[in-house]
Amino acid sequence: MSIEARLSLGRGDFQMDLDLDIPASGITSIHGPSGSGKTTLLRAIAGLDRHPGSFISVNEITWQDDQTFVPVHQRSLGYVFQESSLFPHLDVRRNIEYGVRRGKKGPHMLEKAMELLGIESLRDRYPSSLSGGERRRVAIARALAPKPSLLLLDEPCSGLDATHRSELLGYLESLHSELSVPVLHVSHSAAEVLRLADRLILLQSGRITASGTLTDLQTRLDLGLSREEGAATMVEARVREIDQRYGLAVLEHSGGILTVINDAFEPGQRLRVSIAARDVSISLTEPEDSSILNTLRASIDAMTDLDSALVLLKLDAGGSPLLARITRKSAQRLSLAVGMNVFAQVKSVALLQQS
Amino acid sequence: MFSSAELTALALTLKLALVSTIVLLVVGIPLAWWLARTRWRFRFLLDAIIALPLVLPPTVLGFYLLLALGPSGPLGRFMDALGGHSLAFSFSGLVIGSVIYSLPFVVQPIQQSFIATGRRPMEVAASLGAAPLDRFFSIALPLARPGILTGAALGFAHTLGEFGVVLMIGGSIPGETRVVSIAIYEQVESLQYTQAHWLSGALLLLSLVLLALVYRTSHHFRIGPS
Fold this sequence. Notes:
The complex is a heterodimer of chains A (about 350) and B (about 230). Chain A is about 20% helix and about 40% strand. Chain A has helices at about 40-45, 90-100, 110-115, 130-145, 160-180, 190-195, 215-220, 330-335; strands at about 1-10, 15-25, 25-30, 55-60, 60-65, 75-80, 150-155, 185, 200-205, 205-215, 230-245, 250-255, 255-260, 270-275, 280-285, 295-305, 310-315, 320-325, 340-345, 350-355. Chain B is mainly α and about 230 residues long. Helix content of chain B is about 75%, strand content about 0%. Chain B has eleven helices and no strands. Chain B is globular, with a radius of gyration of 20 Å. The interface of A and B includes residues 77, 91 and 99 of A.
């Protein structure tokens, strides 16, 4: 099962030329600066704009080729626009039922969608009485309710303040682990992409500059994501054991062992955690008198100057990549060089999601 | 208070306004929809033609309608071929006249409502599986409700006050074309000021109530229960 799109279009100065083939599962984020063609791509896939000569197919069903153009309303998709665009004359319940009533007589997930987005209590309210964050959640539930083959999310957090953005990201993360609907997500925010994406497509002036798994792209020193203030490495880990005495959990992943504060985890549970580059420091010998619990053996794969003060290292910890951001002064003092074996001390590990 | 002739005139006027308003909505809503969405480069010409009655003396409009509807006019000949009567000096003729005369009052507010709604709600509806006609009835029409109510009330009120066009194509046949405005004109001509007062007052009050309703809805319209 996959999503394929070949697009070639020109509009004034803007040229788009790309070829996409992604598995129909998990969250694929399309990331790029504004004007890079993210929304154009999403609208073309949905069929909201028709660009002759394009090819779009989802799960082996052709939505567009030279002979075919399936109109939007016959495509099994959910589309969440940048503005929530709720129907102002319908209450929340009827907004969400709108697509379910019109969908094929198949399984829908109206109740599940409302529960996942925490909007059951808003059922009888009208959009004009909802906050920005609530509207966005209703819009997402509305798009999900008919159980589409593909969910398209255009900048789901735009226009929200920091608190509501973080709240909405929490809901989107829970969708990720609870649902099988593949998501194509568009965002110019690196922080959002780092939190949500399984796979990434980087877009620049209508062309794909890189695509791959989040871990691969976020640790590539030649791409912008590793240079972001929030640069991090996503790690898929499994809970090995719970240390009841200290309230800690021991996680294992391909790069070694990570000890984190236990948050009602179960042994065997799979977790997705993120290690920020600024929370990783380097030591040449195995530290024994440090308060930091997590030390991973690693070798330096690559290094690059971020600015006059900071250096970014890409480490290889037992086959897993790991970013570390340290001062240039420390790098020189320790005479760090590519190929050296070091100890990476991880000051903190952020939980992204559990499944 | 009112003689039976005056009551007949009042009833005829209300009937004319009601029938005209229904026809105006049936014609005006699709027309407004098309005008709001089309990218046709000569749309402005159609906009101008629809707006003509706003500036044209009703007698000019009435004159051309008389020629068109009369026995030798194109519409008259068409009716003749169908075995019907000439439309001039008939109720049907009045309806045609008032529809054309009031068209801008109905089309423009509805067109503005459709434009204000924009394409986005229709795109959302399409992404949720609604076919074009379904989208129109479930989304576009309810969202244009303020414009449609305003258009209907203005069309109704404007037809009530129509005089020039009726005079040209309808004359004054009791129960067929003798509407209130014509009756008042005749009463004043024959110095029956008391009757003219009653009829004028009735028309004034009716128009005032209608316009007050229009302004109330357009200022206080909110979607959903407030």
